[in-house]
Structure formats: structure tokens, C-alpha cells
Specification:
It is built from 7 helices and no strands. It has 190 residues and is mostly helical. The chain has 2 domains: 119 residues; 64 residues, no CATH class. It comes from Brassica carinata (Ethiopian mustard). Component of the exocyst complex. Belongs to the EXO70 family.
Length: 190
């Protein structure tokens, strides 16, 4: 699947997953409780919602198992944060039965895989590929003070939330050192 299609599908997944958990599942559980009573509604509820929930989880798993691409980092992070945010609601909705326990387990597994994919996508090689033009311009000017002018509009605010100044500086230093070694290796034919 090309990046544009995947990006669109991930955005849809985030919207749908939030709606399914916070609206559809809550309403369905309430309706089952009203019709069947709390004791017998659990099995009916889980049987009713299992297929759509598993379909959503399968997409999340597929994204997490896909190839490492630096451009996927923000979308995977968005998916992971949503899964973490919805976890307490999933735990409450599926806390009553063995079937519910298996769905909770599947949800946690997909969340774990998204977390692993997030870590893989943010590896130094992925960041190097993503930030390569920035590093080249920094090396040409041999100054780090120009960094904020080289970032895309709004990226400074985002990065400020995600990284402290120290970790940002260390990351940039490590990436520039890695990039420098790579360039020497290419120049020397190694």
C-alpha cells in the first residue's frame, strides 16, 4: 500500500476506533444490559461486537508489522496514544467474561506491537533518513543556532513537547556524527 493511502486509512482508523469504543460499544453494552439483564448480556455483547473490534485490531496489527518508514512515525504514535487512551474503557467494557478477556488480550497485544513499531520507526537510521536535508544544511553552516529556522512550520512546537533541549541537542549531535561517518564511508568506498 502506498504511503498516501496508508496515511488516509490510519486517519480513518483513529476516528473510527475512537467512535467505536466511546459510542458504539458503550451503547451496545447498555442496550444488551437493558434487554437481556446484566448476567446474560455479557456473552451476547461480546458475540455482537467481536467481529468489528477484531477487524479494527487487525488493521492496527498490520500497520505495526509493516516496513519501517520514518514518515509513519507520527501516525504510529497517534495510533499508539489512542490505544493507550482507550485502554481503560476497553478494560471496563470487556471485564466480565472469558470472551471479553480474550478481546482485552488482543487489544493489549496490538497496543504492544504499535509501541514496538513506534520504537523501531524512531531509530536513529529512520531519523537520519527523515532529517537528512536538515543535517546537510547544518553541516554546511556549521552552526546549531539555525536549527529552528530549518524546521518545518509548527515542528518547533511539536518537538518542544516531545524532546527536551538536551536530548534534542544530543540527538542532533549523534545523527550528525552518524551522517559524517556514513559520508566518509561512502567517499572511501566502504
Amino acid at each position: 500500500m502506498d504511503w498516501a493511502t496508508l496515511n488516509t486509512n490510519i486517519k480513518k482508523w483513529v476516528r473510527v476506533m475512537r467512535s467505536i469504543v466511546q459510542v458504539y460499544l458503550v451503547s451496545e453494552k447498555s442496550l444488551n444490559d437493558q434487554i437481556f439483564g446484566e448476567e446474560s448480556s455479557v456473552t451476547c455483547f461480546v458475540d455482537t461486537v467481536k467481529a468489528p473490534v477484531m477487524q479494527l485490531l487487525n488493521f492496527g496489527e498490520a500497520v505495526s508489522l509493516g516496513p519501517r518508514q520514518p514518515e509513519k512515525l507520527l501516525r504510529i504514535l497517534e495510533m499508539y496514544e489512542l490505544a493507550s487512551e482507550l485502554l481503560p474503557e476497553i478494560d471496563v467494557l470487556f471485564s466480565d467474561s472469558q470472551l471479553g478477556s480474550s478481546l482485552r488480550g488482543e487489544y493489549r497485544e496490538v497496543m504492544r506491537r504499535l509501541g514496538n513499531a513506534r520504537r523501531r520507526s524512531s531509530s536513529s537510521k529512520a531519523l537520519l533518513l527523515l532529517m537528512s536535508p536538515l543535517i546537510l544544511s547544518l553541516e554546511e553552516r556549521s552552526t546549531r543556532h539555525e536549527l529552528r529556522h530549518e524546521l518545518p512550520h509548527g515542528a518547533g512546537r511539536t518537538s518542544a513537547r516531545l524532546l527536551t533541549r538536551f536530548s534534542w541537542s544530543m540527538m542532533m549531535w549523534n545523527i550528525s556524527q552518524y551522517h559524517h561517518r556514513q559520508m566518509l564511508s561512502i567517499r572511501d568506498g566502504g
